[in-house]
Design goal:
Blueprint (H helix, E strand, L loop, with lengths): L1 H12 L29 H14 L1 H9 L5 H16 L4 H38 L1
Helix pairs in contact: 4-5
């Protein structure tokens, strides 16, 4: 009889939701009989957690580390523009113009950095030969 009570208790503790493939969710239920993923009452918290996870994911952090610090504001604007185009708030032509200007900015900055590095190398070589 103990196993029957335990089975009923365990069943009650499971989420009432279903997975994408239609099978019963195996997560433990919170208040309301649903897990965090399936609870209608926790939808806003779930969306906030997803957004926070996306911004702080290892991939996103590594990608941002590749962007030179002075280009971060440009990167942020382009990222926002991408979302706005996807949502229909920004015309694709405007986003294309932004991307073209950003490419030009990167080209100018890259040329400047290469020129600066070349000058440093030349000055070090001149110092060794003298």
């Amino acid at each position: 009889m103990t196993s029957a009570i335990q089975e009923i208790t365990t069943e009650r503790m499971r989420c009432k939701g279903t997975t994408k493939n239609g099978s019963p969710c195996r997560a433990h239920a919170l208040e309301g009989g649903y897990c965090f993923v399936h609870s209608p009452a926790l939808q806003q918290k779930r969306l906030e957690a997803r957004a926070k996870g996306g911004r702080n994911s290892a991939k996103a952090v590594r990608l941002r580390a590749l962007v030179p610090p002075r280009l971060l504001p440009v990167y942020d604007k382009l990222e926002t523009a991408l979302s706005e185009v996807h949502e229909g708030g920004l015309k694709p032509q405007q986003a294309s113009a932004m991307a073209a200007l950003a490419r030009a900015m990167v080209s100018v900055l890259t040329s400047g950095e290469l020129e600066e590095r070349l000058r440093d190398i030349e000055s070090k070589l001149r110092g060794k030969t003298q």
